[in-house]
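Intended use. Records like the one below are meant for learning the mapping from a protein sequence to its folded structure. Do not use them to infer anything beyond what is encoded.
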Amino acid sequence: DEAAARRSIQEHCAGPLGLDVVEAAHGIVEIANAAMVNALRLVSIQRGYDPRNFVLVAFGGAGPVHACRLAAEMEMPTTVIPTSPGTTSATGLLVTDLKQDYSVTRIERLDCLDCDAVEEAYAGLEAQGRSTMKEEGVAAEAMSILRQVDIRYVGQSYELTLLLPDNRLEAADIAAVEEQFHQEHDRAYGFSAAGEAVEFVAHRLTVTGEIGKPSIREWKQGGDAVGALKASRQVYFAESGGFVDCRIYDRYGLRAGSVIEGPAVVEEVDSTTVIHPGFRVLVDGFGNLVVSLGG
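Structure written out for the chain above:
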């Protein structure tokens, strides 16, 4: 509870550092935020992706607590918080299609590529995958095949993975793959060398077996969040200079079309969503909280 949290922070952090309990608690949260921002940069900016072009999906018990601060730091315009975020991972595990990945190493330059050998390699991988899926009880019509290739400039020690068409490679396909590689290399590393020789390194194949999935329940239209308002209490926001009055909402009382202006807190059984000042929430037709900065 709150009293136990205060005692723990006072004993282990605030006291030894000579800080106020609230300042220490805020510092703990900011350190966690910084670590998560670094992780987001690792999977976006450092891979050549601009996070401003993506939507942040916040789930888990704690994800919605930190979402607004992470979105602001990464300049991501939209954040989506699904219903029951604390069980999103478990739900995903239960409804994810079966998948088998296979690969075979074969280093060969594109300017002297043996297309027959490439097709033979993929055919062998596909046969393995379909056999495994059949043993899992997946019908042939529920299987799908994805071909990929690890590709690089000749002499490089690192590769990029690109999609390949599911047909037998022809000269036009090879030229298209090479052009795609130059573009992807430029996107990922900031440069490309169109005149340099390119080579395949490894062939990859993914066999997916589709499984049945539950339908997503649509939420009732309402448009007014007043019915979900359960309380008001003081909540600390650094950007507001300290504690401010904050409306507390029951997520299960919200309706599609409901709008919430920050600062606010949305509570549910498995998580808590913290809406910072300046952020706005719109509940979509499936109960997702769509959060944006400044509306």
